[in-house]
Amino acid sequence: MSSTEQGTSSAAPAEPTTAPESAAAPEVPESFYYVHGKDKVVHKVSAGALQHSALIHGMISNLGYTEEQAKANPFPFENIDGDILQMVVDWCNQHKGKPTPPEDTNLPKQKEKLFDLVLAVNYLEIKELLTYCCKQVAMMVKGKSPEEIREIWMIPTDAEDEAAEKEAKKRAGKEAAGETAAAAGDAK
Amino acid sequence: MPIRLLSLTSEDLQYALNCMEIDELIAFSLCSKRTKNLVKDSNIQIEPIYAKVYENYIRLEIMPSNLRGVQDDPDPLFIYLDFSNPYITLERKNGMEVWRKEGFTQSDWIAHFLNISNEPIIRELMINGCCPIPYLDTVKRIIPKFQELHITEDCSTELTEIAFRKLIPNAEKLQVDKDPFDNDIHISQFLKPNLTSVCLSSWGHPCKLELDDLLLANSSFISISLANITEKDLNRFVKIWTKSNHRFYRPEHIEMSARNEINRAELLRGIKYQTVDNSHLLKRADGKELEIFVLTNFVAFKFK
């Protein structure tokens, strides 16, 4: 058994690895995929790192790309800003093949990016990172009063909510009326 | 830099709410009707709310459930409602904070806390000895419904009686710690209301209990400690119950602790019963059963 493992290990690319790891698991050439965000900057990410994303993992499993095909067809995420995608890729790389710790201190500290990060992570279905991000979101209001929370999270007042609701109804009514008029015009 | 939280997906919002401590959830719930409903729908796991009445304020105790698993949740959160002002004071990690909400009265605060915690009523209203009698009406107005009325040992006879009279119609359960129950405040009045549970404690001075007190009792569960009742009265009580075929008797369980040893033979004298395990079983003609359990200083009657 152990001789087979050693044999496989020696057949692997000559990448230097630590002795205990090479003895424990045979090395398999890692496959890489490519992703880009709104800024079209392509990031090369290993399949292991991308396993964190249920969305990308599902895409990889379904496509069965070769490395060349993957390089030629980076996964486009046009709805994600480049710097946000970079953060996600970095996080996936840092946590590749590792159990996710209960606390993550490596998360970006910029609050202005947090909201976009949550949206991106939710879209990419990276559950652990989403949990950390939401925790970070919750931390923003630690010890804050209702008025401070309203400000930080831009929560509309009841009056603003009611006005927005009225406006939405009005708009929906206008759209419906417009559609009816257009349909009547077509019929003529 | 602010972020527009309510634009997050409901799943993300739920994650964020799950990470928030109980006082922050309350603060968030007070921002608008929408945030209140979000907190309510998130089914935050908290223990039932307890209210204690002091000299000129009510202290609410809101305890997050262990199931929440939020590391820094306070244990528990204390919120103070002033009788004469519509604001609340919270004991938070950074110290005391005063919160106001336009149009909110004290009862609106209570209703809000119950609403977001999906609790129908306050679990226990505790009246302390320092509660001024004139404020009892205010207490009743602020907390119109609660499960258990608890009158503590340090309440005067007058406060005990008035608190009981005014507040018991709003309660389902009663606990009175009074030492002693005596002629000024006789135990019988506490046994008559139709409640699910009555617990009377008078550990220093056993309270005098008579046959009529037991016959007129009207709560499902009654616990008295310590009770001063003779075995002869208990024996007559059992015999009367046995003969009262088809007569409704509301109590389902009565238990009493006594200072002196209970004479089992005396209690069961002239009564036909079967002994099953450690209890004695009686059956009356209409099929109803009574199980009597006697220990050295304790007797329990279970009506089936």
Describe this structure in words.
The complex is a heterodimer of chains A (188) and B (304). In chain A, helix 6 packs across helix 7 and helix 7 packs antiparallel against helix 8. The N terminus of chain A is likely disordered. Chain A has a domain of 111 residues: Potassium Channel Kv1.1, Chain A (2-Layer Sandwich), CATH 3.30.710.10. Chain A has a 3-stranded mixed sheet. In chain A, 60% of the residues lie in helices and 6% in strands. By secondary structure, chain A is mostly helical. In chain A, strand 1 and strand 2 form a beta hairpin. Chain A contains 10 helices and 3 strands, in the order H-H-E-E-H-H-H-E-H-H-H-H-H. The longest helix of chain B is centred in the C-terminal third of the chain and has 13 residues. Chain B starts with 9 loop residues before the first helix and ends with a strand. In chain B, the strands form 2 sheets. A 15-stranded mixed sheet of chain B has the order 5-4-3-2-1-6-7-8-9-11-13-17-16-15-14, with helices on one face. Chain B is built from 10 helices and 17 strands. Chain B is elongated and about 80 Å long. In chain B, strand 4 and strand 5 form a beta hairpin. In chain B, helix 2 packs across helix 3. Chain B has a domain of 210 residues. Chain B is α/β, with parallel strands linked by helices. The model of chain B has no long low-confidence stretch (mean pLDDT 90). Classes of the chains: A mainly alpha (188), B alpha/beta (304). Chains A and B meet through helix 7, helix 8 and helix 9 of A and helix 1, helix 2 and helix 3 of B. Chain B: This is F-box domain-containing protein. Chain B: InterPro entries: F-box_dom (IPR001810), F-box_Sdz-33 (IPR012885), Zygotic_Embryogenesis-Asso (IPR053222). Chain B: Pfam families: F-box, FBA_2.
